[in-house]
Hints:
Helix content: 10-25%
CATH architecture of the largest domain: 3-Layer(aba) Sandwich
Mean pLDDT: 84
Shape: elongated
Number of strands: 18
Bound molecules: guanosine-5'-triphosphate, magnesium ion
Structural class: alpha/beta
CATH topology of the largest domain: Rossmann fold
Distance between the termini: 65 Å
CATH class of the largest domain: Alpha Beta
Largest sheet: 6 strands, mixed
Low-confidence stretches: 334-349
Number of domains: 3
Amino acid sequence: xxxxxxxxxxxxxxxxxxxxxxxxxxxxxxxxxxxxxxxxxxxxxxxxxxxxxxxxxxxxxxxxxxxxxxxxxxxxxxxxxxxxxxxxxxxxxxxxxxxxxxxxxxxxxxxxxxxxxxxxxxxxxxxxxxxxxxxxxxxxxxxxxxxxxxxxxxxxxxxxxxxxxxxxxxxxxxxxxxxxxxxxxxxxxxxxxxxxxxxxxxxxxxxxxxxxxxxxxxxxxxxxxxxxxxxxxxxxxxxxxxxxxxxxxxxxxxxxxxxxxxxxxxxxxxxxxxxxxxxxxxxxxxxxxxxxxxxxxxxxxxxxxxxxxxxxxxxxxxxxxxxxxxxxxxxxxxxxxxxxxxxxxxxxxxxxxxxxxxxxxxxxxxxxxxxxxxxxxxxxxxxxxxxxxxxxxxxxxxxxxxxxxxxxxxxxxxxxxxxxxxxxxx
Length: 426
Ligand SMILES: Nc1nc2c(ncn2[C@@H]2O[C@H](COP(=O)(O)OP(=O)(O)OP(=O)(O)O)[C@@H](O)[C@H]2O)c(=O)[nH]1
Ligand SMILES: [Mg+2]
């Protein structure tokens, strides 16, 4: 099974239903009062935290998620049906980014936490709302608002309180296997651990915390070397780092190793070097380890070091220390400086239309709303076309066209339709 920690999805919330133009039919009354109801609301796409999920596997083959459109308004002032919202269940630690802007639009950390990622359009008002003393029979209603559409990057960041870091083969997985019931693969070749593993550490005093075993880091990890980089971001969630150093000196020099890993943390954005760190000096059973440890302590007199033999167990001392650090370290902000842990979802309306000057007196209007309005226009009916023109003017399309240099006689295109821009008032 491959570890899925990243997927991209296309999302489209439902459009609001259009308001209806209708008139009451009464016996002997040719045209009653307006009676067209409002359109129903389009379905939103809502991401929800689910503590029972641990991967994004369910979304692996999903390319697109759509919510249904709201129903059109009905006669007798009846509302169109509101479409159901679509809920997407994701594991805790899921972060959702807008692909276009890169902004984090959702960060789900709690069970049942809901974030509206794509908002459904509001229904349009039916003509019942537009009756007035000067117009008792309004023959217009509002179109439903378009549902939001966006492409998102969904990423899973593991939620671990503490993370085991270090070079490959230093014994990180061995440590996780003896302190928790997790069963990571252990082998004497580098990069045995290809994906992060989590284990629950239960202390004798009743405390517990989640410890992550992460793939080995190497020099250059922060620039993408080895596997570590992909998972360095998971470290961001860990409040405490347990830095495992192989004291045997069999393959490498522990004094140098320690420095290289810390330099990599420094290079990686997110200030991982600020996480409290304890050093576990592993493989103390091997000859020469004691000498290396002395050398290490001399080189880094201020560093907290816990000598262990991983597979002999007895890691209580360091585990209690980690637990204490977890409890006393505040949560770190998860991304770029200045961001807080909490992401407030903002629904910003997109500009209603965009105008492109295509040269030679040709202009193009691009707008989901206007394109939809166009779908309701009967091109063979002059009145219908004039109304459409009026609606555009109301939306300030005319003045925007002028701003872009559009002159009377120029051609304005919307989808496949061409119009001639006229100056006179409609
Ligand atoms: N002699 C000795 N060997 C150990 C000790 N701890 C782990 N090892 C051995 O070191 C090798 C690597 O251990 P792992 O736990 O797989 O190392 P890792 O840090 O998870 O390595 P990667 O997943 O590749 O990054 C294995 O052969 C372990 O049996 C120890 O305290 N003493
Ligand atoms: Mg491992």
